[in-house]
């Protein structure tokens, strides 16, 4: 899937059916979108993790719908053919299907993105169905759901007990039946992610969920080594934080010593 045609939900479904991996990456703005897409990312997820990696919050809870729209519109301006998904932020969709519909309409109209993502399983199935029946592409997200960190108290692995594992399997089926077009599986055992992937028709997108998912996603800043620290499941493939720091400190030294401009 490396041509320039527009990526759609159907592209991702076809890839699952052909057993081809797809690559998702978060993007924050037009620059990160262009870099990610040029390097081969097929889906750009404007994750609410941007509240932590770009906006300096200590969780994703303070992120607002307007902030998500602002960043998503920039990502849309920076992409060429990638599918752009916007995380609906905490508080913008949990109250009712109608509230989720209004938030989705605002995001789709004001940013030009392609799909919305919501956290939650069986308890969000009515909302997913409400949106899907009205023509909205919805990505679901189960396992570790960071917007519930105040309830669970940590970002630890989910699906460790048998009970939790069967609940997550039920969640995956419920969001699939409700019409979700893809399903993010975050920080769950690889074997569980593997059985979920085999038991649902829609593509699964793993982050900390092992190799047997249909797609993988990471947070842009973690992947390039720009974050101060990474989750245990997110390896840094470069040390961009050091590269940037070195460039800036060389320039600072040149300014101080009168060697800039030359
Ligand atoms: N930069 C960044 N990358 C992410 O992947 C990310 C964010 N931010 N912000 C929102 C959430 C939070 N995420 C996290 C953060 C920490 C762990 C982590 O350290 N997990 C440990 C256990 C931690 C604990 O028990 O408190 C683990 O072993 O799973 C996992 C996911 C994933 N998401
Ligand atoms: C890591 C992905 C799945 C996410 O929800 C985010 O970046 O906010
Ligand atoms: Mg998120």
TrEMBL record:
<dbReference type="InterPro" id="IPR015813">
    <property type="entry name" value="Pyrv/PenolPyrv_kinase-like_dom"/>
</dbReference>
<comment type="similarity">
    <text>Belongs to the PanB family.</text>
</comment>
<dbReference type="GO" id="GO:0000287">
    <property type="term" value="F:magnesium ion binding"/>
</dbReference>
<dbReference type="GO" id="GO:0005737">
    <property type="term" value="C:cytoplasm"/>
</dbReference>
<feature type="binding site">
    <location>
        <begin position="48"/>
        <end position="49"/>
    </location>
    <ligand>
        <name>3-methyl-2-oxobutanoate</name>
    </ligand>
</feature>
<dbReference type="GO" id="GO:0032259">
    <property type="term" value="P:methylation"/>
</dbReference>
<keyword id="KW-0489">Methyltransferase</keyword>
<comment type="pathway">
    <text>Cofactor biosynthesis; (R)-pantothenate biosynthesis; (R)-pantoate from 3-methyl-2-oxobutanoate: step 1/2.</text>
</comment>
<feature type="binding site">
    <location>
        <position position="117"/>
    </location>
    <ligand>
        <name>3-methyl-2-oxobutanoate</name>
    </ligand>
</feature>
<feature type="binding site">
    <location>
        <position position="48"/>
    </location>
    <ligand>
        <name>Mg(2+)</name>
    </ligand>
</feature>
<keyword id="KW-0479">Metal-binding</keyword>
<comment type="subunit">
    <text>Homodecamer; pentamer of dimers.</text>
</comment>
<keyword id="KW-0460">Magnesium</keyword>
<keyword id="KW-0808">Transferase</keyword>
<dbReference type="GO" id="GO:0003864">
    <property type="term" value="F:3-methyl-2-oxobutanoate hydroxymethyltransferase activity"/>
</dbReference>
<feature type="domain" description="PH">
    <location>
        <begin position="1"/>
        <end position="33"/>
    </location>
</feature>
<dbReference type="InterPro" id="IPR003700">
    <property type="entry name" value="Pantoate_hydroxy_MeTrfase"/>
</dbReference>
<keyword id="KW-0963">Cytoplasm</keyword>
<feature type="active site" description="Proton acceptor">
    <location>
        <position position="186"/>
    </location>
</feature>
<feature type="binding site">
    <location>
        <position position="119"/>
    </location>
    <ligand>
        <name>Mg(2+)</name>
    </ligand>
</feature>
<feature type="binding site">
    <location>
        <position position="87"/>
    </location>
    <ligand>
        <name>3-methyl-2-oxobutanoate</name>
    </ligand>
</feature>
<protein>
    <recommendedName>
        <fullName>3-methyl-2-oxobutanoate hydroxymethyltransferase</fullName>
        <ecNumber>2.1.2.11</ecNumber>
    </recommendedName>
</protein>
<dbReference type="Pfam" id="PF02548">
    <property type="entry name" value="Pantoate_transf"/>
</dbReference>
<keyword id="KW-0566">Pantothenate biosynthesis</keyword>
<dbReference type="InterPro" id="IPR001849">
    <property type="entry name" value="PH_domain"/>
</dbReference>
<dbReference type="GO" id="GO:0008168">
    <property type="term" value="F:methyltransferase activity"/>
</dbReference>
<dbReference type="InterPro" id="IPR040442">
    <property type="entry name" value="Pyrv_kinase-like_dom_sf"/>
</dbReference>
<feature type="binding site">
    <location>
        <position position="87"/>
    </location>
    <ligand>
        <name>Mg(2+)</name>
    </ligand>
</feature>
<comment type="function">
    <text>Catalyzes the reversible reaction in which hydroxymethyl group from 5,10-methylenetetrahydrofolate is transferred onto alpha-ketoisovalerate to form ketopantoate.</text>
</comment>
<dbReference type="GO" id="GO:0015940">
    <property type="term" value="P:pantothenate biosynthetic process"/>
</dbReference>
């Amino acid at each position: 899937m490396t041509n320039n045609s527009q990526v759609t939900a159907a592209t991702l479904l076809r890839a699952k059916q052909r057993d081809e991996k797809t690559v998702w990456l978060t993007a924050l703005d037009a620059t990160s979108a262009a870099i990610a897409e040029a390097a081969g990312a097929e889906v750009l997820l404007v994750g609410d993790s941007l509240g932590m990696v770009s906006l300096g919050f200590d969780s994703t809870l303070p992120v607002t719908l307007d902030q998500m729209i602002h960043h998503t519109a920039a990502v849309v301006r920076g992409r060429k053919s990638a599918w752009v998904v916007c995380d609906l932020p905490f508080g913008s969709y949990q109250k009712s299907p109608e509230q989720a519909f209004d938030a989705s309409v605002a995001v789709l109209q004001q940013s030009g993105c392609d799909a919305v993502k919501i956290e939650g399983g069986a308890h969000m199935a009515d909302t997913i169905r409400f949106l899907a029946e009205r023509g909205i592409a919805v990505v679901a997200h189960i396992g570790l759901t960071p917007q519930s960190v105040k309830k669970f108290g940590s970002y630890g692995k989910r699906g460790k007990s048998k009970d939790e594992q069967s609940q997550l399997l039920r969640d995956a089926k419920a969001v699939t039946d409700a019409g979700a077009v893809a399903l993010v599986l975050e920080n769950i055992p690889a074997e569980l992610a593997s059985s979920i992937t085999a038991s649902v028709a829609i593509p699964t997108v793993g982050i900390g969920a092992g190799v047997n998912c249909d797609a993988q996603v990471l947070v842009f800043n973690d992947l390039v080594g720009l974050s101060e620290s990474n989750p245990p499941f997110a390896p840094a493939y470069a040390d961009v934080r050091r590269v940037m720091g070195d460039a800036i400190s060389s320039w600072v030294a040149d300014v101080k010593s009168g060697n800039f401009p030359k």
